[in-house]
Design goal:
Elements (H helix, E strand, L loop, with lengths): L19 E6 L1 E9 L5 E9 L5 E4 L4 E4 L14 E5 L4 E4 L4 H13 L13 E6 L2 E6 L3 E6 L8 H12 L3 E8 L4 E9 L2 E13 L2 E8 L7 E5 L6 H10 L1 H4 L6 E10 L7 E11 L2 E6 L5 E3 L2
Antiparallel strand pairs: 1-6, 2-3, 4-5, 7-15, 7-17, 8-9, 9-10, 10-14, 11-12, 12-13, 13-14, 16-17, 17-18, 18-19
Length: 300
């Protein structure tokens, strides 16, 4: 694999804090020979978790190489990747890769036979198969209704495997009991940082996955840097809030929580731009502080 920049952006200069510090791949499909129900030889696809395969990151030559060979016949044409960077930057999801990223998520949920969407304006895509239906929107909407799924013994293990194969990066799962069964929830992350407001809920009824609902920005592993400007620190964010407390009408006295994350920009053009922010929760309301422009907006 070669680590390189796309040609959709001009005049990109890399600073000293723009290195990839960790890299891994997820599930890879490989051909397997077996015997069908009639006793005849048959070739089918099986998935193998390759997240443990070691890679070497060559910063000088901008290359990422696997130390050991992948399984014979492994299809790496659409494998999902996970990477970590040492910089605080903006990222954007390329619109030309959006449909491909949606398809990866759809096939993880609905199987390889999931029908791809037609053209149109591509604001909304729908996939169907004998396992159910999935609808995605360009603004992150994600809604799947599933039927005929296999019984699950371990909810957390099954959900984690599914989310990883969909390309949904997260840090932890939370579980709650409902009248219908069990629901697991996970917050999406980019490079280990939460995407505020982006969360999926997986609902299980009678030990079967029946629905996946929420917000999911597909293609997190194919984000593109559009700025190398470093975000402000937590101390700077709090100082900014205090300096503008009168203009904001903030009458609080205590900060109860401070969280760094990303928010999707409303001015994303044909792609989705993620802006670094600080979420400051207080005893008199919560505020988002833009990590680049220092603009403050109240959480609604």
């Amino acid at each position: 694999m070669t680590s390189c920049l796309g040609n959709d952006l001009d005049d990109i200069k890399l600073g000293s804090e723009s290195s990839i510090t960790a890299f891994s791949i997820g599930t890879v499909w490989v051909p397997v020979t077996g015997v069908d129900q009639n006793g005849n030889d048959s070739v089918y696809l099986d998935s193998i978790d390759c997240s443990g395969y070691p890679f070497t990151i060559d910063q000088l030559n901008r290359r990422i190489e696997n130390k050991d060979s992948l399984p014979v016949g492994a299809d790496v044409s659409r494998v999902l990747t996970s990477l970590t960077s040492d910089g605080s930057v903006w990222y954007t999801k390329r619109s030309d890769a959006g449909i491909e990223n949606d398809t990866v998520a759809a096939q993880a949920l609905l199987g390889q036979k999931a029908a791809q969407p037609d053209g149109g304006d591509r604001f909304e895509s729908e996939y169907t198969s004998e396992l159910g239906t999935l609808t995605l929107t360009r603004t992150g909407g994600f809604s799947a209704v599933l039927t005929g799924g296999a019984h699950v013994r371990n909810y957390e293990k099954s959900a984690a495997k599914l989310l990883h194969s969909m390309g949904f990066q997260f840090q932890q799962l939370s579980r709650r009991q409902t009248e219908a069964g069990v629901t697991l929830e996970a917050e999406q992350t980019l490079l280990g940082v939460p995407v505020l407001g982006s969360q999926l809920a997986l609902s299980y009824t009678d030990d079967c996955l029946t629905a996946v609902e929420g917000t999911f920005y597909t293609g997190g592993s194919s984000i593109t840097r559009v700025s190398e400007q470093e975000a402000i620190s937590a101390a700077d964010a709090l100082a900014q809030l205090l300096a503008r407390r009168d203009a904001l009408g903030w009458v609080g006295s205590t900060v109860t929580s401070l969280t760094q994350g990303y928010l999707p920009s409303d001015q994303a053009g044909t792609g989705i731009r993620f802006v670094p922010v600080w979420l400051v929760e207080t005893d008199a309301g919560s505020f988002f502080i833009n990590g680049i422009t220092r603009e403050i907006t109240a959480e609604t």
